[in-house]
Amino acid sequence: MGLQTPSAPARETRDSVVIRFAGDSGDGMQVTGSQFTVETALAGNDLSTFPDFPAEIRAPAGTTFGVSAFQIRFGSQEVLTPGDDVDVLVAMNPAALKVNVKDLRAGGLVVLDTGAFSERNLVKAGYVRSPLDDDTLAPYTVLKLDITKQTLEAVKPHGLGQKDGLRSRNMWALGLMLWMYGRDKQATIDGLAKKFAKRPEIAAANISALNAGHAFGETAELGHDFTGYAVPRAAVPPGVYRTVNGADALALGLVAGLKKSGLERLFFSGYPITPASSLLHDMANLKPYGVVTFQAEDEIAAVCAAIGASYAGALGVTSSSGPGLALKTEAIGLAIATELPLVIVNSQRAGPSTGMPTKTEQSDLFQAVYGRNADAPLPVLASSTPADCFEVAIEAVRLATKYMTPVILLTDGFLANAAEPWRLPNVDDIAAFPVAKRTDPEGFHPFLRDPETLARVWAVPGTKGLEHRIGGIERSYDSGHISYDPANHQKMTDTRFAKVARIADDIPLQRVALGKDSGAVAVVGWGSTFGPIHEAVKELLAEGQAVAQIHVRYLNPFPKNLGELLGRFDHVLVPEMNAGQLVAMLRSTFLVPAESLSKVTGKPFKSAEVADATRARLEPR
Amino acid sequence: MTVVPTPQLTAKDFASDQEVRWCPGCGDYAILKAVHKTLADLGVSRENTVFVSGIGCSSRFPYYMSTFGFHTIHGRAPAIASGVKLANPGLDVWVISGDGDALSIGGNHTLHLLRRNLNMNLIVFNNEIYGLTKGQYSPTSRKGTKSPSTPQGSLDTPISAALFALGAGAHFVARSIDTAQPHLVQVLKRAHAHHGTSFVEVFQNCVVFNDGVFDEFTAKDVAADRQLHCEHGLPLLFGKDRQQGLRLKPGKLELEVVTLGKDGVTLDDILVHDEKNRLMANMLAALEAPEFPVALGVLYCNPAPTSYEDDVYAQVAAAGAPKSDINVLLRQGRTWTVQG
Question: What's the sign of the alpha-carbon dihedral A135, A140, A143, A148?
Answer without folding.
Answer: negative
